[in-house]
Known about the structure:
By secondary structure, the protein is of the alpha+beta class. The protein has helices at residues 20-25, 37-47, 51-61, 65-73, 82-92, 109-121, 139-147, 164-170, 186-194, 241-247, 314-324, and strands at 123-126, 132-135, 153-155, 158-161, 250-256, 258-260, 265-267, 280-281, 283-284, 291-292, 307-313. A hairpin with a 5-residue loop joins strand 1 (123-126) and strand 2. The protein is globular.
Amino acid sequence: MIISKSILSILFLGDILVSFGEFVENNKALAPSGFVEEWWVNLLNKSIKDYNIATKLFKQLKIDREKINSFLNDPFVNIPTIDEAIHLSRNLLIPLHPSYTHFWDNTTAEEIAQLKQEIMNSDFKIQDSGELIIEKPHIDVKKILEKAVVPHELDGQRIVIPKGRIIYECLDLKNNWDSPKKNALGHEYISQMSGIEILPKAPSFIGARMGRPEKAKPREMRPIVHTLFPIGLSGGPRRNIVEAAKNNTIMSVDIEKRFCSTCNEFTYTNLCIKCGKKTVLKRFCPKCGKSYEIKQCPQCNIETVTHEKRPVNVRSLLELATKKLGMSAPPDVVKGVRGMTSDTKKPEIFEKSE
């Protein structure tokens, strides 16, 4: 499916990791990091070191120690719910989890105050599902939400924020605030008035044209591939996915294991192919086969994995990708790879083939 015609602007291109060596080599002062999961985990761990205080807080928060340990052991997979993140922040006096921290540092305190006031002036409601619905909002509401990169949808004359409880709590929409101090930043104002500490999500930005792009050469794999999708020995010496799909509809490949709770089925895609809902990465022991959220099987004492050899309908995937891209037929040659070398063995979708 071609979506370029429906895009008006791109608000954020994503994160970039610049190594410490780049700063040393260019004699550049080290830029501050945005607030990330590793940082949050260290603050969480530090705040619960006192066993008695931690036990009392766990009872108060209704979060068991095992779940807290899962956050500490694998913070990228085990993410607290919105309510858990807010409770942990308020009661342990730690910053809000990075997954629920928006780009408030892109805004001024005056803009935050305006956003809060305009929402409170409109007819808004917070749903049990956590959605925040704003009826007939002022035009500036959408502008500031975009500036803070808050995911939202337009539904007629109303704005729907799927994870609106974060906005509801951070902006404290049930209470009035004092006017902000002059030149205060948005995240500082929210931290001060809401009681939920917010750290900068992206204190540093880098221009897309920095460096010397004219000197950079394309990095190509040898042999050249079109997509990182494993097909083993199928598809002949060129690893041609189109040829493999003609000869073998179903292929067994070592691939990432994810689970869709809606369809109750395992898959390898971030979004379920059937229902489109978000899937969850599954970690299990390769020896006993039991599922765990931790990196080591307590029974077999070996490392758990997130991939397995499973049957994949390559022909169906190829036809679906062709349809999404608005093509009448796939190219004659789409070169894949024999196998994945990454830890999770996460493949690319066919639509990304170059």
